[in-house]
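Hi U.,

Before I forget, here's the chain from the pilot set. I'm dumping it here mostly so it's searchable later in email.
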Amino acid sequence: MSYTEGDTVLPRNVEEEMEESYLRYSMSVIISRALPDVRDGLKPSQRRILYAMRQLNLSPGAKHRKCAKICGDTSGDYHPHGETTIYPTLVRMAQNWVMRYCLVQGQGNFGSIDGDPPAAMRYTEARLTKSAMALMEDLDKETVEYIPNYDETKKEPIVFPAKFPNLLSNGSSGIAVGMATNIPPHNLHELVKATQLIIDNPEATIDEIMKVMPAPDFPTGGIICGYRGIREAFHTGRGKLTVRGVIRTEEHKVGGGDRQRLVIDEVPYNVNKSRLLERIADLVNSKTVTSISDIRDESDKQGMRIVIDLKRGELSDVVINQIYKFTDMQVTFGCNMLALDNGMPRIMNIKQMIASWVDHRIDVIRARTRFELSRAEARAHILEGFLKALEHLDEVVKLIRASINRDVAKRGLVEKYSFTERQANAVLDLRLYQLTGMERDKIEKEYEELQSKIAHLRSILADELLVRGIIKDELDGVAKHESAHRKTQIIPAEEELQMEDLIADEPVIITISNDDYIKRMPITTFKEQRRGGQGIMGFDLKKGSDAIKDIYVASTHDTLMIFTNLGRVYWVKVWQIPESGRRSKGKPLVNLLSGLSEGEHIAAQLRVRDFCEEEAHILLSTERGIVKKTLLESFSCPRSRGVYAINIDEKDRVIAAHVVRPSQQVMLFTQEGMAVRFDQEQVRAMGRVARGVRGVKLRSEGDCVVSCEVVNGDETLLVVCENGFGKRSNVKHFRQTHRGGVGVRSIITSKRNGCVVGALAVSDRDSVVLMTSIGHTLRLNMQDLRVMGRSTQGVKVVNLKEKDRLIAMQKIEYIEEKITNGKEEA
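Structure:
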């Protein structure tokens, strides 16, 4: 770099220079580009375009002018950032699917809701609308401050007088540096009522405002689902609105038969119609939605109309749910009500925004009143001079005729009749016809009217209630030129669309292998058999003899809480588990769960429908006899990578999980045939990461807990051993003790029986599915197994092949079965 003589070079830290420069840039973007002013709801670029159009006299009744002329004048006089950046802003203010109340009336191609670009500015024309004129009304009455333009050759207003709250009626969006704004539009008639409410009662609450202005009103219509997001936005300035398009169902005849078709009349705000059609077509082509036979866009100048023909026999409600779920026919509008208040960015609630506009309007009315008062007083002063001159008409005429020139005449009037200099000049400018009697009456009448007007203007300045009344009347005047019809509907109860809406609620069987392969099967897959049967093949094995570890019964709408041996819990919707046949291996569970560590395996599963159930707890038990109770509500927030549910000791692992409620008891069964029964109240509730307390005392080092059951006291218990023997006993035969004891004998673990595999609380109407180590399954009805004593050896419940053994059991609660058309249904 070369320097000229006399230059001074100062050392500067590059970090400080970047910080200071970026800060200046940020403030410029925030204040002078991206954010609207809360007073008139406009950004600087919008304000300058409208002001330039006003200077060109492009009122609603004037002839349209070329947009190239408008953009050129705006760029040359006020906004030196190029016509190509000004024209899109001008176009946006003329698009009725973007602006709730357009500020520019366009003539020509200004684009479309399909995303079509507007024609070049040399082809389009524009003029101001009544709404824009209302924003700029009284600009010439010294109501707002003016500042020099960029080259100080002209002046421009820093804000418009804004006769109505434009920021809330038209909304705004913009991205600044480190902040953004997204304000929805509202219905002007509702907004006027809300504003008048604040004017009458500044202490009015936001809930009272919502009674007259319940929600935003988008120019494209649609449906707002629920009041929760509206309340959040209105109360805090931030909130999320769920907005849906409108879909109707029509009947039509095809080939002599009746079919249904869907008609889309309205799409959500800021949604591109052509892209929406492309998305629906993609869903049909990818077979995600299989019920649609044809899609047509029949939109014309009368309005939007997208027709979706359905195949014969398809349910329209299911297709509507799918369209809402997979397309932009349902979107989230994030309200971020950020605007410039006194030059500083500020997030405001709905009341603060209205109150800020009211304060601005009060200042405007007072400034306008002072201007009109000054003009009226000046005119009255002149009329007083006229009246004084008429009183001494002959002397005044004689003095003027005797004067050599105007200055002498003026001096004579001032000195002899005490005229002010302004009055003297006005008298000297009078024409002869104004000295007639008729003209004198006009002057006196005008003077009286001026005195009345001056008194009224002074009363306005002295009484704020009169100012507020004027604002209310002017708001009514603006609103009467706009339609009161609300475009956007509101659904009172928010209903978040869930995938469960598209899936039948039915019971299924879930199986998990030792290698953590999982699959879902219809409950009718396993045929119920008599006691002593060998079962059917229910699981094809991988190489390496992957034995089945667990089997579980749940509903497709349930949440499956999956607990691992290391004490972590994961959440999976049952319908998300892939459905497979009996001989299929299923899918690796690791593909459904994220975050499983090495050596972590599935230990227990728990079916949950409602996490907000009062006084419900989750009870976890471990192999070493530890039990722990935690509020069910503590697990109501699913995490994709799971959370810790219990702090596990080294060499211990989770074996069972249950939901427990007041007055229930807990029973723990050991591998060596012992059982302990105690009240669940003996286990105090703990946090998720606590360790728990001792539930049973193991008799030997090799013993362990194999089952945990929650009972009410009137059930029977099925205890099964690995060699296929088992028995049913009454719960009452197991005496209730304190937790931590050794317990009583549940079944004799002889050489014939083998060790205990598990125990279940069952009734006569229940069935139990037993699984063997080679993958065979047997569904056993409990009516076929009589109730026996507590310490007997039991009977054979399943015939096992050589070297086979029982490894898992699961209860299937009673499901009414019936025969329809010769087929068994459950």
